[in-house]
Write a structure and sequence with these properties.
By secondary structure, the chain is mainly β. It has one domain: monomeric porin ompg (Porin, Beta Barrel), CATH 2.40.160.40. Helices cover about 5% and strands about 60% of the residues. Strands 1-3-4-7-8-9-10-11-12-13-14-15 form a twelve-stranded antiparallel beta barrel. A hairpin with a 4-residue loop joins strand 11 and strand 12. The protein starts with a helix and ends with a strand.
Length: about 260
């Protein structure tokens, strides 16, 4: 089943239309909220009307092979409590004994912000997404059907903490498989406009669908403007036979506000 991309676009366009004659404008001082480069994302979402785009490059060492992907994610916040998202791991190339190249699944989903952060309580959000192939992929019959994620975010003095737990569900022909995961990311500000992040994560195994994985990830970010963030870093896997290390670079951009609240 293909994701309802047309429905998502229709919802976004109808909301934009109801905003009247207000014209789109530049981002001003709107602050972006990158999910990249972490596996864990923040429970917060950007302001209503903001379009947020993330893109990057990721290289993984997979035993005797090397995988290169070019992921992207586009987000539109419809209201302070709901955001729609469309993304993919993008063009993927595998170098090694069994080379392959393909465009990975497209994913469509929504993220609901259910609780704001307070003096003692964290911010909380949940999301659900579905994915499906967009083209025939030789040797890539396996695809993820659904993703479910819970997000908890709290600022603890100078440290910003993001805890995520999730479930990925796959369908392979008539068989089904699922994979649970957890990630905790801690970030702090360096002398502006730089930041530092450290993350620990673990994925359970899912039979033929996915191997167990885990590691420790680190990154440095640079935000020359509130609406623009660059990041770069890497991570070391706990299971070298699955994945020894990864390296990545990325960018998060809020190019436009379609309306202001």
């Amino acid at each position: 089943m293909k994701p309802p991309r047309a429905a998502v676009l229709a919802i976004g366009l109808s909301v934009v239309g109801r905003r009247g004659a207000k014209a789109a404008e530049g981002p001003g001082d709107t602050r972006g909220l990158p999910c990249r480069p972490t596996i864990a994302c923040t429970a917060d979402i950007v302001v209503p009307g903001a379009v947020e785009i993330e893109a990057g490059s990721l290289t993984r060492s997979l035993g005797a092979s090397r995988q290169e992907t070019f992921p992207f994610l586009a987000k539109l916040t419809l209201a302070k409590w709901i955001q729609v998202q469309v993304g993919s791991n993008g063009y993927t190339a595998v170098r090694g004994p069994a080379p392959a190249s393909y465009f990975d699944n497209m994913t469509v989903g929504a993220k609901a912000h259910v609780l704001d952060q307070g003096d003692y309580r964290p911010a909380v959000s949940v999301s659900a997404a579905a994915s499906a192939p967009v083209a025939s992929q030789d040797g890539q019959s396996l695809y993820a059907d659904a993703f479910f994620t819970g997000y908890v975010t709290k600022d603890l003095g100078p440290v910003h903490a993001d805890l995520n737990v999730g479930l990925n569900a796959w369908r392979l022909n008539a068989d089904a498989a699922s994979q649970g995961w957890i990630a905790l990311a801690l970030s702090t500000s360096l002398p502006p406009p730089f930041g530092l992040m450290l993350e620990n994560y673990y994925f359970t195994g899912a039979g033929a669908a996915a191997s167990h994985d885990g590691g420790v990830l680190f990154a440095v970010s640079h935000s020359p403007r509130p609406w623009l963030t660059f990041d770069a870093g890497g991570d070391v896997g706990y299971f070298p036979a699955t994945r020894a290390f990864s390296a990545f670079v990325g960018m998060t951009l809020v190019p436009v506000l379609l309306w202001r609240s």
